[in-house]
Amino acid sequence: MLFNLRILLNNAAFRNGHNFVVRNFRCGQPLQNKVQLKGRDLLTLKNFTGEEIKYMLWLSADLKFRIKQKGEYLPLLQGKSLGMIFEKRSTRTRLSTETGFALLGGHPCFLTTQDIHLGVNESLTDTARVLSSMTDAVLARVYKQSDLDTLAKEASIPIINGLSDLYHPIQILADYLTLQEHYGSLKGLTLSWIGDGNNILHSIMMSAAKFGMHLQAATPKGYEPDPSVTKLAEQYAKENGTKLLLTNDPLEAAQGGNVLITDTWISMGQEEEKKKRLQAFQGYQVTMKTAKVAASDWTFLHCLPRKPEEVDDEVFYSPQSLVFPEAENRKWTIMAVMVSLLTDYSPQLQKLKF
């Protein structure tokens, strides 16, 4: 039997005198949690089953409800510390991780390239072992996925991918929570990617089919996703009975899509390619013309920061745009990742119906 979380949240808001936006969560009967992620690394969603990813989203919703809506204090990470290695600058990843870890009672330690230069001042092996002796987990935002793999191999604590050249798994968790809130379920949605074959697209490809979501992705010629990622995504689509379309035509990718998604065309470290990339991505801007071929209930996602050539103001600031709830959900999802990898906590909110 389904219950309406909207009523529950409205009652809580009335009692506590809070005003907030209520989302359309669909929940089922409480189930005993059988997923155990404590001690795991989160390097890519490729390494997680659909049920494990769903658990992290369920936990995200639980923490958001208990802390934001009910005003509870949950020091689940009290006495724990987090090493935060940032080779690349960040707004959302840094703020969401620092504030989220502290809100849960833990102590985040921010480390830039001025503090720790991976593999230069000290070997990756030595860095991993030192951090393992002083912190409970490490979130690393790096240039090379191989550096994360080495850290994970040498460390005795969980290593979390805060972004690499190949994957950005914590961003996709926030995207999925946002869509779950808006649509009430993820199964059957068609995601339309229009942009670069980058780490965001790779992370979608490693996870969408596990929820029963279809993916239609348009990238310019020469900017397609990594072939090894594509091969595995095709396997996931076959196993889960979902559609995977890879094309060079933005309107073909947008056709019938529930969710229009794009990202920066020029990532950090690609600045020298700017002129070449801007030319290659001509015609890839998401506009209302793009939305006209999408589904009637279309929404828009962008992980930010956004440039006008990627999406125009009419779409970006439209009622269909979910970019700012998406940004906020970076906090609740990274908190859930930390709690799931470091504790035995189980959600109290009824399990979401995905």
From TrEMBL:
Keywords: Amino-acid biosynthesis, Arginine biosynthesis, Mitochondrion, Transferase, Transit peptide, Urea cycle
One BP annotation, GO: L-arginine biosynthetic process via ornithine
Pathway assigned to this chain's UniProt record: Nitrogen metabolism; urea cycle; L-citrulline from L-ornithine and carbamoyl phosphate: step 1/1
One Gene Ontology term of the molecular function aspect: amino acid binding
Function: Catalyzes the second step of the urea cycle, the condensation of carbamoyl phosphate with L-ornithine to form L-citrulline. The urea cycle ensures the detoxification of ammonia by converting it to urea for excretion.
Family: Belongs to the aspartate/ornithine carbamoyltransferase superfamily. OTCase family.
The protein's name in its UniProt record: Ornithine transcarbamylase, mitochondrial
Organism: Sapajus apella
Gene field: OTC
